[in-house]
C-alpha cells in the first residue's frame, strides 16, 4: 500500500473524547476556517456553514440533546449546517423566481456540502496534531438544535464536532475488510453475512472502547442487531423539521 504523511494521519483516525485544557491558537483556527471554506461544493454554491459554539449555556443545552457531556468539555465545538439561506436571500434581492430554492435537491446538496466540509476539517485538524469526535447525536432533537442555534429558514443542522489536543490514546477501532464495502460495477451481495463477518467479529471483541469500563465491545453483528432494532423517536421527525425549516419535500409525510 502506498502511503504518505497525509494518508497515514487519515488511517490513524481515532475518536477523541478527552482533551487537554488548551485552547486552539488563532493561527490554528484560521487554518481550519480556510480549510472549511476551500472544501468542494456542489455546483459552486457553497451551501454549508459552521456555527462555532462558545456560549456555555448553549453548549449545555446541546449536551442535553446529544446526551454526551463531553460536548461541554471540547476546547472547540462546531456544528456544520446545510445552508441555503444565503442564496435564497440573493434571489429575493434580485427579484428572481424562488420556485426551486427550497426543493429536496437543495436540501440534499447542502447536506452533502456540510458533510464533506466536516470531513475536510477533521483531516486538517488531525494533521495538526488535534483530535476530533463527531456528534451525530445533535440530531436526537433537530428541532431543539435549530432553536438553540437560532438557525433561519432554509438551513438544517447536519453534524457536530469536538476539536482539541488529545488527552487520551484510544485503540485503533477495527474496520471490516474494505472488500465488503468497495465493489466494482455492481453491488456485491453475500449469502450469509454472519459468516462473512466472523473474523471481523473476533477482532471487535478484542477492542476496548474507553467509554466502556466493563471490557471489550460486542461483536459487530450483535451491535448491528441491537442498534437497528432500536428506534430513536425524535429522529423520525427529521423530515418534518426540514419542512418546518422551509424545505419543500413534496408529498413526503
TrEMBL record:
Pfam families: Nitroreductase (PF00881). Residues 10-165 form the Nitroreductase domain. One of its GO terms (molecular function) is oxidoreductase activity. InterPro entries: Flavin_OxRdtase_Frp, Nitroreductase, Nitroreductase-like. It comes from the Bacteria. CDD domains: NfsA-like. Keywords: Flavoprotein, FMN, NADP, Oxidoreductase. Belongs to the flavin oxidoreductase frp family. This is NADPH-dependent oxidoreductase. It comes from Helcococcus ovis. The lineage of its organism: Bacteria, Bacillati, Bacillota, Tissierellia, Tissierellales.
Amino acid at each position: 500500500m502506498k502511503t504518505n504523511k497525509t494518508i497515514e494521519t487519515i488511517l490513524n483516525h481515532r475518536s477523541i473524547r478527552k482533551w487537554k485544557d488548551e485552547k486552539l491558537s488563532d493561527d490554528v483556527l484560521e487554518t481550519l476556517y480556510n480549510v472549511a471554506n476551500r472544501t468542494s461544493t456542489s455546483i459552486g454554491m457553497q451551501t454549508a456553514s459552521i456555527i462555532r459554539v462558545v456560549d456555555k449555556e448553549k453548549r449545555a443545552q446541546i449536551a442535553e440533546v446529544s446526551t454526551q457531556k463531553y460536548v461541554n468539555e471540547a476546547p472547540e465545538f462546531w456544528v456544520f449546517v446545510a445552508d441555503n439561506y444565503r442564496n435564497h436571500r440573493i434571489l429575493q434581492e434580485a427579484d428572481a423566481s424562488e420556485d426551486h430554492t427550497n426543493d429536496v435537491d437543495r436540501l440534499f446538496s447542502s447536506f452533502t456540502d456540510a458533510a464533506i466540509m466536516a470531513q475536510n476539517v477533521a483531516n486538517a485538524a488531525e494533521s495538526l496534531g488535534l483530535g476530533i469526535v463527531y456528534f451525530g447525536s445533535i440530531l436526537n432533537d433537530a428541532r431543539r438544535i435549530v432553536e438553540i442555534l437560532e438557525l433561519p429558514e432554509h438551513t438544517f443542522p447536519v453534524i457536530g464536532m469536538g476539536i482539541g489536543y488529545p488527552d487520551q490514546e484510544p485503540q485503533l477501532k477495527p474496520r471490516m475488510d474494505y472488500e465488503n464495502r468497495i465493489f466494482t460495477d455492481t453491488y456485491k451481495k453475500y449469502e450469509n453475512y454472519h459468516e462473512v463477518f466472523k473474523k471481523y467479529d473476533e477482532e471487535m471483541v478484542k477492542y476496548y472502547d474507553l467509554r466502556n469500563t466493563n471490557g471489550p465491545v460486542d461483536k459487530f453483528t450483535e451491535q448491528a442487531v441491537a442498534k437497528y432494532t432500536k428506534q430513536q423517536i425524535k429522529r423520525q421527525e427529521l423530515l418534518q423539521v426540514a419542512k418546518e425549516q422551509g424545505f419543500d419535500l413534496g408529498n413526503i409525510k
